[in-house]
């Protein structure tokens, strides 16, 4: 999140060219200053048998580009303006432009911060305008970094921060994204609201508590198509580093779907160990997720969990299935081959939670209906990824996934084929 960066420490230092970009005084006292920055990302993507050959598209490859430029303006201790332009471009795909890949030019962030209270380590800030949101593990609210055009909202947020407690309360509208130049439209409808808190517990870890509400006038599940009003209450207990690592999360959802009631839930356990004093600093983890699906098709009520605005790669580098109606077992490991080169290996075993519900995409939209099949196993994903930081400005990463179809996919897809995904990303940031 570029707006979280703070370069005030450069105020009284001897700065090189890069430092002069990151701290530009606007008055003699230097309490009015500006910081500028930007990013460029180039990505090559290759798919073979996406959606397991359902549409017989075979192989497909294309190029993605993304450019960002931002300015962070501080006007004393109490006022701040952050503005960011983004261009997301796609070229080469033969079966149409993917909606999450193309947005030629838009205002990604444009907000005002007002510091209304500050005493010792405590402060309260009000933020208003267009802004990106990213909370917790990205399971429910994320910028969806895997997309070429990252997700953003327009609205207001109140933020409280102290040494061991952080609380955000927000009310947001999700904008309608079009593919042209400055043609995105504000929805003018409150469709995301809630609060997210983090409590730091010394030596034990971190505790997140949250409530999230959404409104959608047209939601699509195997149960049907109807207006959705959904509330999520959840908690997360997590700790990274220092040997034993863990990430435990659970959430319950209620509300209405058309004239029916919503009753859905999810639970996740991710435990592992980081060998910090061993060569290559390997980590080993085992994860297990349970995510509810609809119990009885066409009865009016809905037990399908809605992941809201999830991180697309939460269940693998490029998953073909999303965090809905799912049971998975996910062992994975990382290794620092060099100080700036990391390897990660994953295997993900996937089952449907309910046989009366289907398979959903990484963003949560319905992919394949499932009530006509009594098969539960979806398939196995084998993943490998490498990330190499050449320096603090330039990075290269690539990923590979092989998805071996299971009994359910083979049952509902004639002549189902195993899926292959490969990509390479080159990133530049200043």
Tally of DSSP β-strands = 21
Number of helices: 2
Shape: globular
The amount of helix comes to under 10%
Please summarize the sheet with the most strands.
Answer: 18 strands, antiparallel, barrel
Low-confidence stretches: none
Strand content: over 45%
What is Rg?
Answer: 22 Å
Give the SSE string: HEEEEEEEEEEEEEEEEEEEEHE
Helical/strand content category: mainly beta
Termini Cα gap = 13 Å
Mean pLDDT: 94
Task: Kindly summarize this structure in a few lines.
The chain is mainly β and 430 residues long. 3% of the residues lie in helices and 56% in strands.
Structure in words:
With about 425 residues, the chain is mainly β. It is about 5% helix and about 55% strand. It has helices at about 15-20, 405-410, and strands at about 25, 30-50, 60-75, 80-90, 105-120, 120-130, 155-160, 165-175, 190-200, 205-220, 225-240, 245-255, 260-275, 285-290, 325-340, 340-350, 360, 365-370, 375-390, 395-405, 420-430. The strands form two sheets. It has an 18-stranded antiparallel β-barrel. Strands 17-18 form a two-stranded antiparallel sheet. A hairpin with an 8-residue loop joins strand 13 (about 260-275) and strand 14 (about 285-290). It is globular. The chain starts with 16 loop residues before the first helix and ends with a strand.
